[in-house]
Amino acid sequence: MYLIKKAVFLVVSGFFLVLSGLASAHHGWSWYTGSDFSLEGVVVETHFGAPHDRLTIEAGGQQWNVVLSTPFRSRRAGFGQDEIEVGETVTAYGHRHAEATNFEMKTERLKVGDQLYNLYPNRN
User: Fold this and answer.
1) Which one, of 42, 65, 63, lies nearest residue 55 by Cα?
2) The domain containing residue 102 runs over which residues?
3) What pLDDT does 19 receive?
4) DSSP state of 30
5) What is the torsional sign of CA 86, 89, 93, 98?
6) Structural domains counted in the chain
7) 63 and 10 inside one domain
8) 20 and 76 share one domain
9) Where are the beta strands (DSSP E) in 1-124?
10) pLDDT in tens, 59-111
11) 73 and 41, same structural domain?
């Protein structure tokens, strides 16, 4: 019985260790540059939902994955699917992916028309 309990404990502990590592990696900014980056383009696709809201925008002949914030954080900033439409021009401010061939950025602020949504107010 002791060996069974120990085996269950090890399996459960390993499971939580893997989950905590994934959560830490997911919420990190480490694979984005530390330099400020802005990108203006036309929205070609939207995705609202976990783990992060996202936009695909066309800029300079390239499609970019514009990673926004978690849905909760986006809504708290006043940004949701009713505030944007495919075809609109937006400007995203944040940090681009450190790998130059990866057309992705993590967005701190998003400008849609005259409205600026501050998704990560603590990062300004």
Assistant:
1) 65
2) 37-123
3) 37
4) T
5) positive
6) 2
7) no
8) no
9) 37-47, 54-59, 62-67, 89-96, 104-112, 115-118
10) 999 999 999 999 999 999 999 999 999 999 999 999 999 999 999 999 999 99
11) yes
CA–CA separation, 42 vs 91, rounded Å?
A: 9
51, 19: one domain = no
Same domain, 86 and 111: yes
* 54 plus 113 within the same structural domain: yes
Is residue 23 very low, low, confident or very high in pLDDT (cuts 50, 70, 90)? Answer: very low
What is the spatial distance between Cα 13 and Cα 16, in angstroms, rounded to a whole number? Answer: 5
Helix or strand (DSSP H, E) at 31 = none
Say if residues 109 and 116 touch (Cβ distance below 8 Å): yes
Beta carbons of 95 and 89 less than 8 angstroms apart? no
Q: What is the CATH number of the domain that holds 70?
A: 2.40.50.140
86: three-class secondary structure by DSSP: coil
70 with 100, same domain: the answer is: yes
Q: Are residues 94 and 43 in the same domain?
A: yes
CA nearest 23: which of 65, 70, 63?
Answer: 70
Q: What is the CA radius of gyration of the chain?
A: 18
59 and 39 in contact (C-beta within 8 Å)? yes
